[in-house]
Amino acid sequence: MFDLPVQDARARLGEVLARLHRDERIELVDGQVVTQTAPLSQHGAAQAGLMAALGPFRPREPGARGPGGWWLMTEVEVLYAKSDEVFRHDALGYRRALHPERPEGFPLEARPDWVCEVLSAKTARNDLVKKQRTLHAQEVPHYWVLDPEHETLTVLRWAEPAYLRVLDAGLGDLARAEPFESLEISIAEIFGRDD
Question: What is the DSSP string of the chain?
């Protein structure tokens, strides 16, 4: 991923982990410490809209409230040990079938089964290039990108040698987006356009 000598990369990882324990909002992306700024309102609204849309997947058992089957989280640090990177994803999820107990620890060390990033001008390059490259190397099965500026959802599925783009959806679309394809998701509602 990056060409820091192994000992320098480990020292940088140690520095980032210590700073995270002091509640600093940072990531270690491709060997660089990236400070996370407070999100704009459209970023936060898209993140909240996404979590509301995926709410039916949260219950432990399938039932009247929805299909269940997932541990869904927001703004949680994940350590990707293969590349010594730490990402604070906007949203992520673990299949309960693979993780009967909610993954815990700081940072989480279990590889997510689904990740979503909400783009902003400052983070787009990392989200679309650097993080995507790392997530593919780590074999994260599903990667979503929400773009509040263009009000779109892009869904990527892991494949060799690169992610496959399996869905592009925008305002007015009802999407069955894997791995949550058992329910239709309104893209307008994600972006607060429920009028």
Answer: ---S-HHHHHHHHHHHHHHHHTT--EEEETTEEEEPPPPPHHHHHHHHHHHHHTGGG-SSS-BTTB---EEEESSEEEEETTTTEEEEESEEEEETTT-SS---SSSB-SPPSEEEEE--TTTHHIIIIIHHHHHHHTT-SEEEEEETTTTEEEEEE--SSS-EEEEEEETT-EE--TTSTTS-EEHHHHTT---
